[in-house]
Design goal:
mainly alpha; 434 Repressor (Amino-terminal Domain); elongated
Amino acid sequence: MKKLLEMLKSARVKNGYSQEYLSVILKVSSSRISRWERGKTAMTLEQILMYASKVGIQSTKIFEFLARNGQPGPLPIAEIHLEVFTEEAFRRLSQLVSELEIEHVTIKTKRLR
């Protein structure tokens, strides 16, 4: 949990946000922000995700961090976005990824029509 709190605080500082500024955004006291960051008061998952979103950390990054138990994981070397226009193309692309046995692939799908 300590590493997660350090990650949250680091993102807050990187964004130039004071504890007071963040407390206004999150509608909590600045002393609560301080207690969270020092690990003196436990945070719920909802509070962690809200804090993270306000300092620019995606919820997926939080879940990845928690799943790895704070251990560093493989860092991506590239991020690829594809638009697929047919069901067949999507099926073939999914099959290719499976056949290549690529580890650590995240596929997000969004039906556009």
